[in-house]
């Protein structure tokens, strides 16, 4: 459990995004590019949703926690010469102007399925929910536009 306030408290407001242990999420993480922006999402809470924006400041490299026997993300099957798991470094960019709850995004997704809007195929609702999921630029821009609207 790592909050956006925890990120803001880090030196240079930057930290590694470690502990990803799902192969599909890992592959999405490996495809992240320097300077790319992402939403920071609180998930282990009563109402999950987007709270801020981060940017990728270091592309994928081996996740050190896979080799640390004392770490909860230790993987005894991973080898230093061929690591299974990767991480990226992220830096705080800004808080969103308001909390954007998952329930609101889902409402738009359902509406867009009917009218062909930008969230019609959003992976968050069409595949297994993962800690890392890509967005199209259209999806990212639409969700970002929600911060200007009053909460539903």
Description of the molecule:
By secondary structure, this protein is an alpha+beta fold. It has a single domain (4-147), classed as ph1033 like domains (ph1033 like fold, Roll). Helix content is 27%, strand content 26%. The chain is built from five helices and four strands; from the N terminus they run αβαβββααα. It has a four-stranded antiparallel sheet. The chain is globular. The chain starts with a helix and ends in a 6-residue tail after the last helix.
Net shape: globular
Determine the CATH superfamily.
Answer: ph1033 like domains
Mean pLDDT: 94
Strand content: 25-35%
CATH architecture term:
Roll
Task: Name the structural class.
Answer: alpha+beta
Query: Are there runs of 5+ residues with pLDDT below 50, and where?
Result: none
Question: Within the CATH hierarchy, at the fold level, what is the topology?
Answer: ph1033 like fold
Distance between the termini: 27 Å
Give helix and strand order, one letter per element, not per position.
Answer: HEHEEEHHH
How much helical structure, as a percent, in the residues? 25-40%
Subcellular location: Nucleus
Domain EVE: 2-145
Protein name: Thymocyte nuclear protein 1
InterPro entries: 5hmC_binding (IPR052181), EVE_domain (IPR002740), PUA-like_sf (IPR015947), THYN1-like_EVE (IPR047197)
């Amino acid at each position: 459990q790592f909050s956006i306030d925890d990120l803001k408290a880090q030196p240079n407001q930057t930290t590694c995004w470690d502990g990803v242990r799902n192969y599909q999420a890992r592959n999405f993480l490996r495809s992240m590019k320097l300077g790319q922006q992402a939403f920071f999402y609180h998930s282990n809470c009563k109402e999950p949703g987007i709270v801020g924006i981060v940017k990728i400041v270091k592309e994928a490299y081996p996740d050190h926690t896979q080799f640390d026997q004392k770490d909860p993300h230790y993987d005894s099957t991973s080898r230093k010469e061929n690591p299974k798991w990767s991480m990226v470094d992220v830096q705080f960019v800004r808080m969103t102007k308001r909390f954007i709850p998952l329930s609101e995004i889902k409402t738009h997704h359902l509406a867009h399925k009917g009218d062909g809007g930008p969230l019609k195929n959003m992976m968050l609702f069409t595949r297994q929910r993962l800690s890392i999921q890509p967005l199209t630029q259209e999806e990212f821009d639409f969700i970002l536009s929600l911060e200007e609207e009053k909460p539903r």
